[in-house]
Amino acid sequence: MASFLFITAYDEFALGIRTLAPWLEQHGHQSKLCFFKKFEPAKYAPYLVEEPHNYQTIHTVNDSGLFSFAGYEANPWTSKEVQLLVDIAEHENPDVIGISARNFIDEKLCGLLQRIKEKCPNALYLAGGFGPTFSPERYLKVCHFVVRGEGEGAVLDIADAVDANELDSIKRVLNVSYLEDGKVVHNKMRPLITTFDDYPPPRVARDGGCFFVEDNAVSRAEAAETYCLLIGRGCLNKCTYCCAGEWRNLYRKDGQKVKPYRPKKLERALEEVRRAGGNGFNYLFIADSFLVMDPESQKTLFREIEKYKLSFAAQFHPDIALKYPDVVEVAYECGLTVTVVGIQHGSEAFSREVYHRSNSNKKILEFARLLSKFSQLEIQYHMITGNPLETEDDFKEQLAFIKQLSDDKDIRLSELSFNCLKLFPNTTLRKTITEQNLKQSIEDMIYKACMSLLRLELDDNEFAVIYEDKYYRKRPYFLMNKLYELYLHSKMTEALKKERGISSDETAFLRSNKTVFDLGKMDPKDIQVSEHISDVTISEENYFVAEVCGNDPWIILPALPSAGSGRYVCRTVLETEVRDSMFQIFHRDPEKPCANFSEEKSIRLKMSPGIQPYYIPLDGVDPLLRVDFGNKPGKYIIHSLEIREMENACGGQEV
User: Fold this and answer.
1) Given phi > 0 = left and psi -120 to 50 = alpha, else beta, which region is 129?
2) How far apart, in whole angstroms, are the C-alpha atoms of residue 617 and residue 567?
3) 616-645 per-position pLDDT tens digit
4) What's 652's DSSP letter?
5) DSSP code of 421?
6) Alpha helices in 458-561 (DSSP H)
7) pLDDT at 44 over 50
8) C-beta of residue 583 within 8 angstroms of C-beta of residue 625
9) DSSP string, 25-71
10) At 78, is the pLDDT very low, low, confident or very high (cuts 50, 70, 90)?
11) Does domain 3-39+75-186 have CATH number 2.40.40.20?
12) pLDDT at res. 49
């Protein structure tokens, strides 16, 4: 009998290891699971991360914000949590430690495994999942073997080899990759599973043998109240940005015929619904890209879900839903709360030629109208931003289609999301972009997503003014202001603003439309700078870039138009990697030339690394301002520095 400890990070569902554990035990081996950190909650932020490990989204402004991300950026692990993970491995002392990983945090997971190896040097180390399958060389630096593709057969063979103390035989196991003389050796792929009757349902916490590491503690209870149901394996689509197509190619390269989708029998799906309902879960996430069961089987599934009073999320194939609209109606009646319309791009030609997606815009509109009939159904419309292959003509077609969606009175646009393109290893799209030596740009992602969202809100004339203004292209963060003005600060309640940490200064700034100073429209020659700034440049994006060589870097701004009676808010977006630095505004009366800037007449706040917006109220200050954007040497990038007058915008009332 071989003992296993499977570890995954930022994946509470982890159906791979949840399936492997009972499969091994069915064959006489032991296995335990460790779920390290939650993928959720999604975190809302005023910025994007330069090189994210997970997906980032720019979406319709809602009560939470504009940008969101999840996984490592939203919920980074702590040193204590790493120690807890190491302690679990050391205490369990298994024969085999396996890491199941997606493509998001390969290097960081390898670092975690290295920490575990220091305490468990005698274990055999395996890696599997999308990450190791497509980047085996990364994991073979710390693991003995990588299991590519489906793992049930290979992992069982490895367990039997460990039990028999015949470790050398693992090099002959199908699907296995390993290092030999410094080179990666890939064994052939065994045929894909075609029937799932012999496999037990995925393990849940109540079955035992599960650890959940979160919030600096270890729990044995499920980290989420959602049960993930996979009705089949594979996908009907051939999207170039997705790993699913390359997954199939692993087998085709070995001469195998691969069906795009392999469904389970209806009874297996019903069994899992009962299992979810009987194990304390209150929500069901049907993870298949599309529900492709025959219509009557789908209805049977939905009615079984209703018996256990489970709400659920599912995606429908537009062709099937439009042909059998009663299927969607039954789903809604039985508890469907969330579904998705996958658009990806509004240009049919771009979607077809670049993404290999075949749905027409006409069909997407028909599908959206069908779903919009169900008043309480949350419909998420998904698009992709940040593709460097997109031309200006492609983007114009995208905007035109968004306008169609917005103008259609029979369509509810509850949430339009732009997922920042993530280029996964070995995907067709990544290869194409790499071959053309193209680079992704955060500014381009923000500009195009924000323009697309503004297209929903503005009439043609208002939109044309912004679209034709090159200033916004160079400084897309200003488009965020437009979106917040249109929603966040006109519709959000004061309670929600407080809950989300939105200050009254930010509210006042975004309500105002009277700019009295904008650094981006100044000639650098007209700005007086400190001798502690060794170099000032203006980037292609029109950002003010300063190399600070001392501890007193400053710039002096032109005097504000109203003496101390004016009401202003300064908003600056600063980027730096310098830690524990300060942002400070000094003020004095220009009519008193002998007066100096002093600490008594200043406002200061602590800066954070990364790209951050800062809002500073300037009520009652003297009109001559000096801005200190740091008190430590290093590189500081001012994306924007704008001052707006509040008096006219707010009608003289308190904000």
Assistant:
1) left
2) 8
3) 887 777 788 888 988 889 999 888 888 888
4) T
5) P
6) 460-467, 470-474, 477-483, 489-491, 494-499, 504-511
7) yes
8) no
9) HHTT-EEEEEEES-SPPPEEESS--SS-SS-EEEES--SS-SEEE-T
10) very high
11) no
12) 66
Here the tokens at position 247 are 């997954």
Per the listing, tokens 């692993």 go with 250
Ranking 212-216, 283-287, 315-319, 568-572 by mean pLDDT, the lowest is 568-572
CA 143 to chain centre: 28
CA distances from 185 to 31, 131, 133, 178, 486 (A): 27, 17, 13, 5, 57
CATH dotted code for 515-650: 2.60.120.260
As a whole number of angstroms, the longest Cα–Cα distance in the chain is: 90
Q: What is the mean pLDDT of the chain?
A: 87
Cα-Cα-Cα-Cα dihedral of 172, 174, 178, 183, to 10°? 90
> What confidence score (pLDDT) does residue 487 get?
54
Output the CA–CA distances (angstroms, integers) from residue 578 to 73, 425, 609, 631, in the order listed. Answer: 19, 32, 6, 10
Residue 569 has pLDDT above 50, yes or no: yes
Helix (H) or strand (E) holding 399: helix 392-407
> Where are the chain's structural domains?
3-39+75-186, 515-650
Residues 6+ positions from 541 with CB-CB distance below 8 Å: 443, 474, 475, 639
How many CB atoms neighbour CB 405 within 10 A? 20
For residues 69 and 97, is the Cβ–Cβ distance under 8 A?
no
Ranking 17-31, 315-329, 355-369, 505-519 by mean pLDDT, the lowest is 505-519
Per-residue confidence (pLDDT) for residue 506, from 0 to 100: 63
Q: Are 625 and 558 spatial neighbours (Cβ–Cβ below 8 Å)?
A: no
Q: Stretch 190-201: mean pLDDT, rounded?
A: 90
Sheet containing 226-229: give its strands across: 43-45, 67-69, 56-59, 415-420, 378-385, 336-344, 311-313, 283-286, 226-229
Q: Which residue has the tokens 């790993």?
A: 243
Residue 193: how many other CB atoms lie within 10 Å: 13
> Could you tell me if 431 and 395 are in contact, meaning their C-beta atoms sit under 8 angstroms apart?
no
Report whether pLDDT(488) > 50: no
Relative to beta strand 283-286, strand 311-313 is parallel
- The amino acid occupying position 73 is E
Cβ atoms of residues 617 and 635 within 8 Å: no
446: Cα separation from own chain's centroid: 14
Give the length of the chain. 655
Q: What is the DSSP letter of 10?
A: S
* pTM given for the model: 0.76
Between 580 and 135, whose confidence is greater?
A: 135
